Amino acid sequence: MTIITDPEHIKRFRELTLLKGLKVELAGFKVGRGRSCYSIIKKEFGLRGNRQSVYNQFSKMINAS
User: What predicted TM-score, i.e. pTM, was given to this entire model?
Assistant: First the structure.
């Protein structure tokens, strides 16, 4: 088991989790009872568009860093 303690690693893990959650939402499922990954990504990263375009933009953003 790996424990992530570095703030940069925690941030990266959260971004990857949001990306995977949005992929699940694209398939038509809900990830949890709270806000959707789609709405979190749009608000925090300032992306616009439908779910597919936000997924593509966010994926490029994550892979670039």
Answer: 0.91
